[in-house]
Amino acid sequence: xxxxxxxxxxxxxxxxxxxxxxxxxxxxxxxxxxxxxxxxxxxxxxxxxxxxxxxxxxxxxxxxxxxxxxxxxxxxxxxxxxxxxxxxxxxxxxxxxxxxxxxxxxxxxxxxxxxxxxxxxxxxxxxxxxxxxxxxxxxxxxxxxxxxxxxxxxxxxxxxxxxxxxxxxxxxxxxxxxxx
Length: 180
Description:
By secondary structure, the protein is α+β, with helices and mostly antiparallel strands. It has 4 helices and 8 strands, in the order αβββαβββαββα. The strands form 2 sheets. Strands 3-2-1-4-5 form a 5-stranded antiparallel sheet.
């Protein structure tokens, strides 16, 4: 994996502290921690720990980027992340914000899509609409539906999807929050 990580990154995590404010760079590594949060305005965001062979770095994922990439942000995923380095004047602290995620198919794990659909919302019409959308975009990714609490439903192989193509119609039908 080392060569693949080097190929996709133009900087290692340990060097990010030394770059200038506003620098845009690409790091590659493993997501070792995903902390989903809510902003003061009530919008979703996340804080990730991404580790490469030279160390690790905390990366903030703001609402728009999170909505576009939430299906790619999972524990143990190997990713290349385009980031912007932000420095606050007079502070040593560096904030690294994610701009774009590219999953690297280095892991043996199959791709997956996780949906938030509370059990109470799954009336026959909703189930039928979901089946139609999933069936229209066949692919490799296993689909899991989070029903609320700790209940998770894994759909059969006949509902495996092409993640990047199925997300827009799912969001139109069920709202932006449907993608976990």
